[in-house]
Automatic annotation (TrEMBL):
Species in which this protein is naturally found: Lentibacillus amyloliquefaciens
Name the UniProt record assigns to this protein: DUF952 domain-containing protein
Amino acid sequence: MILHIIEGEEWIKAKEQGIYTPASIVTDGFIHCSTTEQVIEIANFLYKGYFGLVLLCIASNKVNSKIVYEDLYETGKLYPHIYGSLNVDAVFKVVEFETNSDGSFDLPYEINEIVT
């Protein structure tokens, strides 16, 4: 399983279209994803204070596009990147990703239930 942070409204549109093709496909060439261990660090770095987000739980083996684990920013960590659009049927669960009162994020219990 890999995870992707997305605005809830954007996910609704993707489901209607049957495919998710974010702007990062054009700007970066891929969809940014993370592992369970990485998602909170990413969320607190890039999305602190954001509202209306959800986490897409993606079955890697069902993604039609190529997934590459790589360290493009010299962080010493390999992040999963989807090189192409995401077929929505690869998403097996969508979890609300709400902030704490200080705008930070914690891993939702639904994700822990999947992992354990």
